[in-house]
Structures are given as C-alpha cells and as structure tokens.
Structure to design on (375 residues):
C-alpha cells in the first residue's frame, strides 16, 4: 500500500473494532458489569480516544494504573467511574478527591491515609480493596482481612468493591486458578454485600464462576489473545504500516545488520524499512541464521526480517517477491489483519501486551470510526 503522507509510518486505531470487542465481552459477562482497563495509554491505542469509544459502546467503569491516567479518562469521559490500580500515592488523597478517582487500596498504610481524609472531610469517599491471593504483587495479605474490617467497621466505612488478580488465567486448566478462586471466595465472604471482581480478559473467558459482580477486560479489548492455546475471537484494533526507504541487492555470504549476526545464503534483495526499536519494534524480533524473527507484509506476501533491528531501521528479505518489488515510500504492514499482533509477539518471544504498549514511535496516528454502534 502507498502511505497517505509518504512520510513516516501510519498507525491506524479502529475504534469501531474496539467498541465491538467490548460489546462482545459484555455479552459473555452478562449478569456482571463489564469495565474497561485503559492503563498504559489504553494499551498503546490512545487513552483519550479509546475511553470515549468504550464509553460510547456502553462502558461506565474504567481502570487505570496511575492517577495521571485517571485524570486523562476524567477529562475524556466526565461521568466515568474510575479506579486507580496502583492505589493511593502518598500525600495525594486531595487529588483523588478532586478528580473523583477511586484508589484500589492494597496496604494498611494506604487505608489509614484514605480513612484519615474521609474523617477530615466527613465524607465516605469511595475506594476498592485489593487482596493478594497468589500474585505476591500489590494487595492486602489474606491474614490482614480481619484488621481491615476492624478498622473500617467503627467508622461505618465500606469499600465499593473487593478485588484480586489471577496469575494464570491465560491457562484455564492451571491449578492456581482454582486455588485463587477459593481464597478470593473466603475474602468475599468477609465483606457481605460488597461487590467483587476477580476476572481479567482471560478470567472472563474462562468461566462464569470467575465473573462475580464485575469483570475487568484489558488485552482482549484491543484485539490481543487472552487465553493460550485457543483461537483468538477478538477483532484487531491496531494496524501499523511503515515506509520502505530503499530496496538494495546483496550477495551470498554477505552479512546483514549490526553484529553480522545474519549471513545471506543466497543472492538477495533487501527492503530497508524506516522503523526500528526507537519506534517500539522490539529487538527480540530480529533474526539470526540460527533463529528466525518477525515478518512483515509487503505486496500481499509475508517477508522475513533479516539481521538485527536497529534504532531507526529494519531490514526485510523481499527476494521471493521476484520482480514485484516495493517502491520507496510504499508501506509495509507490521501489525494488522495480515500480521496478527500475537503472531508477531510469538516471533519475538514476547506477548501482545508488550508490542501494543510499545506503540509510541515516530508515526502518524489515525483513528477510524467513533465506536458508536447500534443497540
């Protein structure tokens, strides 16, 4: 394809696909509220536009990692209910109150600071409580539940929600899922009448038992694979084309790229792309003679990356295109319907999450559709 501007790459975000993905997940989670996780700039798609599209599709509850992200959602969607997964940053309670952000409280120190603000203002500001059921990341320890209850009950305070996070939901048969489910059930029982949330994208797809009162899809909204070993049912959201700068010839036995890690076994034609690791194309997608790397689509055919990806450039073998060679300024598809996010991630021994959240490069960003769908 020819790039519209001919200058730099073009990242296209399909807001209609994003909205369709949310609505599809909302149908699966019928009976529970379906939130939208928009942290990390909405997984690289743009938190402002993504939040608006998700809200237009029906989402009302949003999860961010930081209060700055929460403020970005508040500006985009004024009536959103916003949870901040990193919790309450020390000394920042006034900011959360002003912006109507709900911290996901995960320690006794956080809880004390939040309750102090509630007492000071004589207002039960909402929050969620996060309990660690097996990740050993953020979260109250299970044995702290009694202390938490003893602290809030005299004040008449109750959280908006109790939550935890699954460590192995992408592997539905993993024993840890059942262990965490049972441990979380013991926590939920100690907070009767308080809504609960356990399921991320993979947990949502694993089974209704994991849904509780709210599900929190992230990667699936953006077209990524949530469950290992299953066909991904979600529509691609991000499509990235980058420009061909030059097509050159190289001989058998010559090396390609830094470190001479790839040596040609045939006379070859190479396309040099204006895209590198500074643009989010991970070096793990490089190739050597011992290990294949990623691929891109040029003129309807998948072409392999050869040699190391450098800061600004990537080299692709286009020999098999014959005389159907690309011209300078023509676009190569790096992500999209022909080069699936998770296939590219697999080639780089990583996950779709990392590729998406790395989309901060030197390219033009284009939004397609507005996310509004008929009921």
């Amino acid at each position: 394809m020819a790039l519209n501007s001919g200058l730099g790459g073009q990242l296209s975000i399909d807001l209609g696909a994003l909205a369709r993905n949310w609505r599809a997940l909302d149908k699966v989670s019928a009976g529970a509220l379906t939130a939208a996780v928009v942290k990390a700039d909405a997984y690289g798609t743009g938190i402002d536009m993504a939040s608006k599209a998700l809200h237009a599709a029906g989402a009302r509850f949003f999860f961010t990692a930081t209060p700055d992200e929460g403020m970005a959602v508040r500006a985009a969607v004024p009536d959103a209910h916003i949870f901040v997964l990193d919790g309450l940053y020390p000394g920042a309670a006034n900011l959360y109150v002003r912006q109507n952000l709900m911290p996901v409280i995960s320690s006794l120190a956080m809880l004390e600071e939040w309750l102090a603000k509630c007492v000071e203002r004589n207002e039960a500001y909402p929050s969620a409580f996060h309990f660690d059921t097996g990740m050993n990341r953020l979260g109250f320890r299970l044995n702290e539940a009694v202390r938490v209850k003893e602290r809030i009950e005299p004040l008449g305070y109750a959280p908006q929600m109790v939550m935890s996070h699954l460590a192995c939901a992408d592997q539905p048969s993993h024993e840890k899922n059942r262990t965490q489910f049972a441990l979380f059930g013991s926590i939920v029982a100690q907070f009767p009448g308080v809504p609960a949330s356990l399921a991320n994208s993979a947990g949502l797809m694993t089974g209704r038992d994991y849904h509780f009162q709210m599900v929190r899809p992230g990667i699936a909204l953006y077209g990524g694979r949530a469950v290992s070993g299953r066909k991904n049912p979600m529509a691609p959201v991000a499509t990235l084309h980058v420009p061909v700068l030059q097509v050159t010839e190289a001989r058998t036995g010559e090396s390609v790229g830094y470190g001479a890690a790839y040596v040609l076994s045939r006379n070859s034609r190479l396309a040099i792309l204006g895209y590198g690791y500074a643009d989010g194309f991970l070096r793990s997608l490089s190739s050597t003679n011992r290990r294949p790397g990623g691929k891109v689509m040029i003129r309807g055919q998948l072409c392999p990356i050869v040699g190391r990806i450098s800061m600004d450039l990537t080299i692709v073998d286009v020999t098999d295109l014959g005389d159907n060679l690309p011209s300078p300024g023509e676009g190569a598809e790096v992500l999209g319907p022909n080069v699936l996010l998770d296939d590219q991630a697999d080639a780089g021994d990583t996950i779709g999450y990392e590729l998406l959240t790395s989309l901060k490069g030197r390219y033009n960003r284009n939004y397609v559709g507005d996310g509004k769908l008929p009921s």
Summary: The first strand starts at residue 9 and ends at 14. DSSP finds eleven helices and 19 strands in the chain. The chain has a mean pLDDT of 95.
